[in-house]
Amino acid sequence: xxxxxxxxxxxxxxxxxxxxxxxxxxxxxxxxxxxxxIYLVLTRLPETLIRPLAGYAWVVGVLAPSTxxxxxxxxxxxxxxxxxxxxxxxxxxxLTRPITRLEYFVGNLAGGLTFLSILILLYSFFAAAIxxxxxxxxxxxxxxxxxxxxxxASVLVFYSLGLMVxxxxxxxxLATILSGMVFFGSFIAExxxxxxxxxxxxxxxxxxxxxxxxxxxxRLASATTFNGLGAPxxxxxxxxxxxxxxxxxxxxxxxxxxxxxxxxxxxxAWTRLRNTDVTRRAL
Amino acid sequence: MYETVVVQGLVKHYGDGGRVGPISITVRRQEVxxxxxxxxxxxxxxxxxxxxxxxxxxxxxxVMGYNPFKDTKKVNLLVGYSPEIPVYPSFYSARxxxxxxxKLKGLSRQDTMREVGRLLDLTGLVNHADRKIGNFSKGMVQxxxxxxxxxxxxxxxxxDEPMLGVDPVGRxxxxxxxxxxxxxxxxxxFSSHELYEVERLADTVGMVYMGRTVLEKPVAELLSNRDGLxxxxxxxxxPRPETLEMIRAxxxxxxxxxxxxxxxxxxxxxxxxxxxxxxxxxxxxxxxGLKTLNPTLEEVFIKVVExxxx
Lengths: 283, 310
Prior knowledge:
The structure holds 2 protein chains of 2 kinds.
Chain A: H1 4-19, H2 22-44, H3 47-50, H4 57-67, H5 69-88, H6 90-95, H7 101-135, H8 144-169, H9 172-200, H10 205-209, H11 213-228, H12 232-242, H13 251-275
Chain B: E1 3-13, E2 19-28, E3 32-36, H1 43-50, E4 58-63, H2 72-78, E5 79-82, H3 94-104, H4 109-122, H5 138-149, E6 156-160, H6 168-183, E7 187-192, H7 195-201, E8 204-209, E9 212-218, H8 219-223, E10 229-235, H9 241-248, E11 253-259, E12 262-267, H10 273-282, E13 287-293, H11 297-309
Parallel strand pairs in B: 3-7, 3-8, 5-6, 6-7
Antiparallel strand pairs in B: 1-2, 1-4, 8-9, 10-12, 10-13, 11-12
Helix pairs in contact in B: 3-4, 5-6
């Protein structure tokens, strides 16, 4: 059984640790900077274009980071969550306290995810607040909690992949690079297949896209948001503007993709931690 | 005194082709056990196996009857550990980390406050309690490490090279802490390649060399061993070479050296002190006194290693 005591300890520890890392802080700052830049650009657009969409300005700010930035951040948090513990040597400290390896694993996992969730919550409310301030009252804000929740669910894929690679290699930089390669590789493959499919008018290629890890991760937040919005025509405009899709997908299929990648990555990571030695700090 | 830690035929194969073992040690309750050996001999491997951080390739390790790799939580409730190179989250203060460790040990809030105060006092970190660990000196981190190992008054303390890289003042402080713990009757396992420290603190010594146990004996028994007996004679005058030759010819005498009015005789396997005394007393050098020096642990270790290599 998992001890609540151990879990809360790890959650607070991982939060503090994440905030102490400069690389992560730079990425977090860039997310907020992205929000500001987006709204600055929107205010420069012709009023005739922006006026019908002004009530949905919040959607742009909330969804923009989930296209790529939040996943890059998630994989970085995942890759460093466990790997850095071995590299620095703090894994020895934790694993010689009265906790089980499962508590250590789940605690670290929950800690990193809590950090990401709080960040998603913060920038989403930041986007909603700026858009209300700049463009006036916002429409369909009731969808925001769904968007936030689906964004949190979507980061699970690359967070878990990062964690898995980090646990396997136990080297944070290498794990970040490798899981980053998976993300960008999948992203490029998806875009390429989309383009080829459109040019050749061959929709069968899109079936392969569904198996890529970015498919669920990048789409889920936008899909659930646009499903919840009252105006599909406006939704599709945003969809084409701010995602690389060109197609919508069923939420269940997206969730299945996310769940499959997340579960597989976590099983591998847990198996490695459970059955192998605790790597000594590199001297 | 019952056995608390039993390592039997521990062998560990590492991925890079390295191999440690077979190592066997037995640590009894309230015993201070010094694990000695040169760097890379298998001390840390043994300690990590005791803590469940490492899965033995073969052999068994039990701590109070538990398998440390499987029953990690139970073992870590019984054991307090200070690593060879202690590393702690640099953003915590000593007080925060001690409090957190107490929490993980399941201490109540009131007990935690008392325990944190006691350990800060014991480790001499009271004045640095709220400083970030990242700003600590090596000696301070080492003392904090021992403090963390002692949280919740564990049954067994495992200290991997507690004096490593610590300045002389820090060493004295750590030695005092360990001395106090010994008086309290704690079971302590500590590794070191500084035999002087082991000689001072340990009840039993386990020697590992080239990945295997070469000796395990009580320190007192080792040091009183008549093999390697050393005698220093003080004379009135510098001895003649013939006198030294007569001593050299005695049974059991391994080495004779003279420096001014002092003659040092090293014996092995036979106690020739009476014969040495007679020769010197009858010589014209004039015997003032004869002092027997017990071998140091270092000498014993070198001898054991030499035997192991033969």
